[in-house]
Write a structure and sequence with these properties.
Aspartate Aminotransferase, domain 1; seven-stranded mixed β-sheet; homodimer; 2 domains; globular; three-stranded antiparallel β-sheet; alpha/beta; Aspartate Aminotransferase, domain 2
Chain lengths: 399, 399
Amino acid sequence: MPKISTKGLQMPDSPIRKLAPFATAAKKAGKRVLHLNIGQPDIETPQVALDAVRGMDRTVIEYSPSEGFASYRQGLAAYYAGVGVDVSPEQIMVTTGGSEALIFAFQACLEPGDEVIIPEPFYANYNGFAQTAGVKVVPVRARIEDGFALPSVEKIAAVITPRTRAMLICNPGNPTGYVYSEEELQSIRSLALKHDLYLFADEVYREFCYGEEPPRSVMTLEGLDEHVVLIDSVSKRYSMCGARVGALVTRNAAVRGACMKFAMARLSPPTLGQIAGEAALATPSSYFTDVVSRYVARRDALVEGLQAIDGVVCTSPGGAFYCVVRLPIDSSDVFCQWMLEHFDLDGDTVMMAPASGFYATQGAGQDEVRIAYVLEEPLIRRATQVLAKGLAAYLVRND
Amino acid sequence: MPKISTKGLQMPDSPIRKLAPFATAAKKAGKRVLHLNIGQPDIETPQVALDAVRGMDRTVIEYSPSEGFASYRQGLAAYYAGVGVDVSPEQIMVTTGGSEALIFAFQACLEPGDEVIIPEPFYANYNGFAQTAGVKVVPVRARIEDGFALPSVEKIAAVITPRTRAMLICNPGNPTGYVYSEEELQSIRSLALKHDLYLFADEVYREFCYGEEPPRSVMTLEGLDEHVVLIDSVSKRYSMCGARVGALVTRNAAVRGACMKFAMARLSPPTLGQIAGEAALATPSSYFTDVVSRYVARRDALVEGLQAIDGVVCTSPGGAFYCVVRLPIDSSDVFCQWMLEHFDLDGDTVMMAPASGFYATQGAGQDEVRIAYVLEEPLIRRATQVLAKGLAAYLVRND
């Protein structure tokens, strides 16, 4: 029997995969599991996108060009103009989700053994993409005490080595919901320029921002045309994670050229998803107004519920639909599993993502969980109630 | 400006990418370009699949499970039973096209620096997938004089080194159309067992087989449960290349476990494509009877037309919809470009894929082209006529 590769063995597991069987068992036992663990929004996909799929008039579901349909890329350029980003269709490559955009960026820009700095906690799959490309993730720690603000320039500069080639940010952030300030973006800009680093920016939560000011794209930072690679996706924006359509946007022609070779090897991004994505560009602004107000109500309900629990630390996230919460426990892996296995409040329990999977630093985040507020407000209120009682029971348990 | 990676620089270019601008220019100049260069069939997608997309009743285009929808995997298991392959739904992982299945297989099974033996000429993108995984392709040469039969066991054994970990075959073959005999499959089986090699088998052209006997899947070879990884796709079978839905099938649980980690990192295969793929399983057998008879007529027209040209060597392919043809020229790269730039017969010219891109051996295939017979029979006849005249003109040209 041939051996499997060490690369496969070393691929990190999903933070919630271990918990999945316990959620299944809880459901089988008749419990209702309130899922605060996932990033699949419950919001409906815009009607224009659904209509486009249902009205598809093709009789052959053909390949699209490897870089995506020309009409879609033109539409995307107009979308970016609308959010203050000046790019041409040629600077936009359609990808199979934001995931593929990030894999292309890593493979086109970084050598195996190169280092990429990522503020932690960060989206757990970044580890998998780095592992796939043979790239080393170097975390810089953002702390709940600071509301997960960007670590200081000095702290970031301190981890730069001769192998450091890039920095990766997610703004608004998954899992923290943090939105970088103008000052923080300028710090990131200075670091990229001074150390000649690529700046990969995952901005898939752009529309989910709850402050007065819309967040600024790194594509608008001056002097970074050759450094910035924007990672984007329709998944969260239009609540169509299953379309598997994203984008890689950069003004760096050499990076585009290399990405194009990877894109041609995999032939094309999904045709049906692109039909949905292109149609979704016509989503009325009322859709987003409505969605944002629902998320604000959910967030406020969540934060209010959490802050009422003794020993729980959480700040109010400014964007996305996640927050990282500190609980008065030793191991959120153990606690999250215990909630599914041993607790219910009148039949209800809660599933959360242990935060340790969102840290690259060994042992970090053990007393934290990520909570996604992707349920309607009444369910969010119920979930915080269940969590409060569960936590109280857990702290006095004897098992 | 940061440097781009050597990995990106070394990614091979598509065999036809260089020609694309010349095809565009020919069209602009008013020529009709008969495309014999591509693998996008002109056949219509089965009605059941189009209907399923148009009738989609989801209101949220959600992620599917990372391994694909359970109902689709059950349907696929039934499909495989129908072609004599006994696998459970758990042994099937849905992927984003056959491309992703092969990338997962390479990454899960092989270390960077490992070697995979591939009979050449082979599907050009195998080079790109190998480059992505850091794997070295070791070709063994199949020859047009032998009708592209499998090279002898001795010749294959001769290239095995301590780093050889796998063999990759495509059956029926792209670009040759060759279908392996029972004897050849047994040779491959012996090699895999004797040298403990993974056997990756790309069987995406399974239904396009024009002999008396249906081709046998490597999944039915005895004693290879831990060695075989089957690569499959809906792209050609149902003429829906743009769905981006494929499958990785293996009875090796460790390989499945590693692939699952890569699958979870990219979240899920396309939801809409899976809807089309699952519905396509109900395609009536009359669809394939019709398609196969059309391809046989096209193939026969092509072979007849080619064999009538002085100095052209071609064998009648037994499957898929390609063949590799030897022309009486020095460089098919130069000739294929010349046909687009400088030749037309009453406004018609022909685009073919130079075969050099399908060989890993430097300098091989310079006098060969790959022809895809993905046009209706009258156009195939016209194309061979244009090629005959073009070739005659090329051989006496003065430019």
